[in-house]
Amino acid sequence: MTVRKRRPRICLAASGGGHVRQILDLKPFWQEHDHYLVTEPTALGHSLATEYPTRFVDHFAFGQARIASRATLAASGLRNFWASLRHTLRERPDVVISTGAGSALFTALLGRLTGARFVLIESFARVRGPSLFGRMAHRFATKVIVQSEALKSRWPHAEVCDPLKVLGAGRPEKEPLVFVTVGTVMPFDRLVKGVESLQKQGLLPERVIAQVGDGGYRAEGWEVHERLPFDEVRAILDKADIVFCHGGTGSLVTGCQAGCRVIAIPRDPERNEHYDNHQEEIVTAFAERGLIQTVRETDDLPAALAAGRTTEPVRATTEPEKLIFRLRQLMAEWFPDSESK
């Protein structure tokens, strides 16, 4: 009698924005196995749920205490925990793979406690130092993978897979269109008002489309959306000449992929715009490679815009083939008698 080999079940856990977009980059790997996603109920999350088996958990980050009450943090953490426990007991994953951040912590921990192997892929946004999620989760991870050589010096036991690839100059034909995007976590009114000021000064004659976040500032005369599905964002980027964005990895990478003139302002935790300063790290890394213009203050946006207009955009993308290859190796080592789809 032939015994059918069991396929291992993979849980792909990630917070919204750039974290879950990094999971999408790994699709050639995880589509070979039984899988499901755990993420936040953002516009991107709901878009993914139409294509892939997806379970939702509440947004949760320890840095919330900077901009919200501890009661709010505790409540979101408790809801996240119970949802994570429910999904873990129902799905019984054999492997949990996470790119962070806080929203994925309980899923990773509970998966490990119920016998799953756990692969921690430290965020692409972390160039020089680990995230809080990474500092906590690496203690119980089966395998730790970082995406910069500098970070490996902090975790000598980690493996390095740097996915960023510079493609060079040359881009598709663009329209006189500006796209402003603040990501999925929270509004970023300082950025939006800074771009509006450029327009009022006569420095930005192009049509403007803006994604401003829930309850974000709405400039007059713009096409404004609080949220946008990922496919619509990509379609806008294909046409947009200039992108103003926060320092989120998802916004930066997709803008560079599309050959846009990207101008970024990192969120400032001292202004309660984010939980920590990781956006400062990532915009600095992109700027040092000549991929974007970046400023910290909106008063410096006119100079950044002028520099962006006179600089030929350098396209870049993430190529996760090395990481995909390593994940396939791990699955073969851990489950030698299993079969993929």
From TrEMBL:
GO terms for molecular function: hexosyltransferase activity. GO terms for biological process: dolichol-linked oligosaccharide biosynthetic process. Transmembrane segments: none annotated. InterPro entries: Glyco_trans_28_C (IPR007235), Oligosacch_biosynth_Alg14 (IPR013969). Residues 178-321 form the Glycosyl transferase family 28 C-terminal domain. This is Glycosyl transferase family 28 C-terminal domain-containing protein.
